[in-house]
C-alpha cells in the first residue's frame, strides 16, 4: 500500500532535476503521474518520456506531456490531458523554472519578462486550470516552488560588508517572492474548499544549479546532501491525508534538513529539524505538523 494509491499528480518541469525526483517519489507511493516538460536532449529525446519510462519501470502509471506552461493553451491542455488519461487530478507541483544571472542594470527587458513569465505566470496558469477540477473533487494539494533566494539577508548596518552574500539575480528573487505571495493568498482564497496550497523551498544540485553548495543561510548550518531525491519526501508528505490541516505554509527541504517558516511575514523566524540521511514521508508526518503548530490529519 502506497501513501498515494489512487491519486493523480501533475508535475510541471517534471523531466529533470527536482521535478523528476518528485515525480518518481510520488509514483513510488502509488500516484499516477503526468510529467510536463518542454525539454528534448540533443538527440531529440523528450525528458518527459524518459521519466515516464522510469515510472513505468517501477509499476506505476505515467503520462508524458510537452506543453509550455507560460501559455493558456499549454497550461489548459496539460491539465485536460491529465484528467482525460487518469480521470482526476489530486496533486499539482510546479517545478518548471529557469534562471537568468546578472545585475539588474544589465538585465534586458526580454530577460525580465521571460523569467517572470515562466515562474509567476506559469504558476498562475497551472493553478487556474487545475483548480476547477480539484474543486469538483473537493480536494487537492497544490505545491508551489519558491526559494530561500526570494529574500537575501541584509546586514544590520551599511558598515557591515564582510561575508555579504551576493544575490545571483534580482529577477529570480522577485519571481520567487511573488510565488510566496501567490501561495499564501491562494491558500486563503481556497480555505473553505478542500484544496490546500503550500510552497516548497528546495536546495539541490541540478542542471539549473550545478554549482549548488551546502552553505549557511539565515543562521542555519549547511545541509549534508544536495541530492534532489532528498527533497521529494516533503512534497509526498504535503500531499497525504496526514497533511490535511496544512495550507499556506513554506517548507524548506534539502538533504536531511526541513525548515518551516512560522510567521509568513517574518521568513527568518524559522524552526529546524535535522536527520542524518533522507526523511521519508511517514516520518515527516510525525514531526512536521507539530513543528508547524497544526493538528495532525488522519
Ligand atoms: N535546485 C535548487 O537548488 C533550487 C533551489 C530553489 C528553487 N529551485 C526551483 O526549483 C524548480 C526546479 O528547479 P531544478 O533545479 O530542478 O531545475 P531543472 O532545470 O533541472 O528543472 C526545471 C525543468 O523545467 C522545465 N521547463 C522550463 N521551462 C518550461 C516550460 N515553459 N514549460 C514546461 N517545462 C519547462 C525545464 O526543461 C527543466 O527540465 C525551479 O523553479 C527552481 O527555480 C531550485
Automatic annotation (TrEMBL):
Pfam families: adh_short (PF00106). GO terms for molecular function: oxidoreductase activity, acting on the CH-OH group of donors, NAD or NADP as acceptor. The keyword Oxidoreductase applies. Keywords: Oxidoreductase. It comes from the Bacteria. Belongs to the short-chain dehydrogenases/reductases (SDR) family. This is NAD(P)-dependent dehydrogenase, short-chain alcohol dehydrogenase family. It comes from Microbacterium pygmaeum.
Amino acid at each position: 500500500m502506497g501513501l498515494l494509491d489512487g491519486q493523480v499528480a501533475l508535475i510541471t518541469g517534471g523531466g529533470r532535476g527536482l521535478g523528476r525526483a518528485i515525480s518518481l517519489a510520488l509514483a513510488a507511493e502509488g500516484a499516477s503521474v503526468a510529467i510536463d516538460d518542454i525539454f528534448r536532449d540533443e538527440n531529440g529525446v523528450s525528458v518527459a518520456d524518459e521519466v515516464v519510462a522510469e515510472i513505468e519501470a517501477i509499476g506505476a502509471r505515467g503520462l508524458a506531456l510537452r506543453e509550455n506552461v507560460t501559455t493558456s493553451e499549454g497550461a489548459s491542455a496539460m491539465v485536460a490531458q491529465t484528467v482525460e488519461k487518469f480521470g482526476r487530478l489530486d496533486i499539482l507541483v510546479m517545478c518548471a523554472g529557469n534562471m537568468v544571472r546578472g545585475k539588474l542594470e544589465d538585465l534586458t527587458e526580454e530577460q525580465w519578462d521571460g523569467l517572470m513569465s515562466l515562474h509567476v505566470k506559469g504558476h498562475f496558469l497551472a493553478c487556474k486550470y487545475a483548480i476547477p477540477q480539484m474543486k469538483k473533487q473537493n480536494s487537492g494539494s497544490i505545491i508551489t516552488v519558491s526559494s530561500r533566494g526570494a529574500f537575501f539577508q541584509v546586514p544590520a548596518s551599511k558598515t557591515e560588508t564582510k561575508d555579504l552574500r551576493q544575490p545571483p539575480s534580482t529577477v529570480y528573487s522577485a519571481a520567487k517572492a511573488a510565488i510566496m505571495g501567490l501561495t499564501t493568498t491562494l491558500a486563503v482564497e481556497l480555505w473553505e474548499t478542500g484544496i490546500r496550497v503550500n510552497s516548497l523551498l528546495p536546495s539541490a544540485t541540478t542542471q539549473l544549479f550545478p554549482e549548488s553548495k551546502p552553505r549557511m543561510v539565515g543562521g542555519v548550518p549547511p545541509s549534508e546532501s544536495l541530492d534532489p531525491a532528498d527533497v521529494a519526501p516533503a512534497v509526498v508528505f504535503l500531499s497525504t491525508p496526514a497533511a490535511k490541516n496544512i495550507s499556506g505554509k513554506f517548507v524548506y527541504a534539502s538533504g536531511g534538513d526541513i525548515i518551516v517558516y512560522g510567521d509568513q511575514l517574518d521568513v527568518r523566524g524559522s524552526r529546524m529539524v535535522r536527520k542524518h540521511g533522507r526523511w521519508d514521508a511517514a516520518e515527516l508526518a510525525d514531526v512536521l505538523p507539530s513543528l508547524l503548530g497544526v493538528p495532525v490529519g488522519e
